[in-house]
UniProtKB/TrEMBL annotation:
Organism: Streptomyces pluripotens
GO MF annotations, alphabetized: catalytic activity
Gene3D superfamilies, per the entry: 3.30.300.220, 3.90.226.20, Lyase 2-enoyl-coa Hydratase, Chain A, domain 2
InterPro entries noted in UniProt: ClpP/crotonase-like_dom_sf, Enoyl-CoA_hydra/iso, Enoyl-CoA_hydra_C, Enoyl-CoA_Hydratase/Isomerase
Official protein name in the record: Enoyl-CoA hydratase
Classification via NCBIfam families: PRK07827.1
Length: 244
């Protein structure tokens, strides 16, 4: 069964991360399935925009520690979202952790309900937010980001808006998205594609410059002794050995 559910309404394709048993963690299968769905959307002239959302109470729990994708595959997926010639809008009504924040930052717009929570938890399992930095760092406030990168603390939707991770937050996320989607439906497909290219140019420069180095860093950290201890502690629901 595919981990991506698909629906369409008035030229907007909705892709839902649908692996609730793993809290929509970024497994090899989920990354591959999402990439395939995005490819279809990019080729389909009937699709004006893409909404990326989720089933269950978690948008994405980060990397699947039992079946993680290769760092290169995650880089390719993030770049695919950024380069897709159609706007991609994240719709979040649950929790977002670690690599899931890379998906959020890769999207052109992002809206979340007030119940959503966010955290860069990589440092707590012995790794770093390396690959996702390709799209997170260019789109966020650097001083505010430093706190959450270094501590792994949770932030709420209002703080995520201030940081630059979200476009907007509301009690009713669909109500908040309605005027955005209506605006996209009224816009020329050609104009949307070219305007998106203007908005993403600086982010893609970061990919061109840093992707190889950050991919290597991610692979090195995930194979380290501290990462093994951190991931084991997480799966066993205990503190890692370095916690004081």
């Amino acid at each position: 069964m595919t981990p991506i559910a698909r629906t369409r309404a008035r030229a907007v394709e909705t892709l839902s991360l649908d692996a609730t048993a793993t809290r929509n963690a970024l497994s090899s299968a989920l990354v591959s399935g999402l990439a395939d769905a995005l490819t279809d959307c990019g080729k389909d002239p009937e699709v004006r925009a893409v909404v990326l959302t989720h089933t269950g109470t978690t948008f994405c729990a980060g990397a699947d520690l039992r079946d993680p994708p290769a760092p290169e595959a995650l880089v390719d997926l993030l770049r695919q979202i950024i380069e897709l010639p159609k706007p991609v809008i994240a719709r979040v009504t649950g929790h977002v952790r670690a690599g899931g924040l890379g998906l959020l930052a890769a999207c052109d717009l992002a809206a979340a309900s007030r119940e959503a929570t966010f955290a860069f938890t990589e440092v707590r399992i012995g790794v770093a937010p390396a690959v996702i930095s390709l799209c997170v760092v260019p789109r966020t406030d650097p001083r505010a980001l430093a706190r959450y990168y270094l501590t792994g603390e949770r932030l709420d939707p209002a703080e995520a808006v201030r940081l630059g991770l979200l476009t907007t937050t509301a009690e009713d996320v669909d109500e908040a998205l309605s005027p955005i989607l209506d605006g996209l439906r009224r816009s020329s497909p050609q104009a949307l594609a070219e305007t998106k290219r203007l908005l993403t140019a600086k982010v893609l420069e970061t990919f061109d410059r840093d992707a190889a180095d950050l991919t290597a860093l991610s692979a090195r950290l995930f194979s380290s002794a501290q990462a093994r201890e951190g991931m084991t502690a997480f799966l066993e629901r205990r503190d890692a050995a370095w916690v004081v």
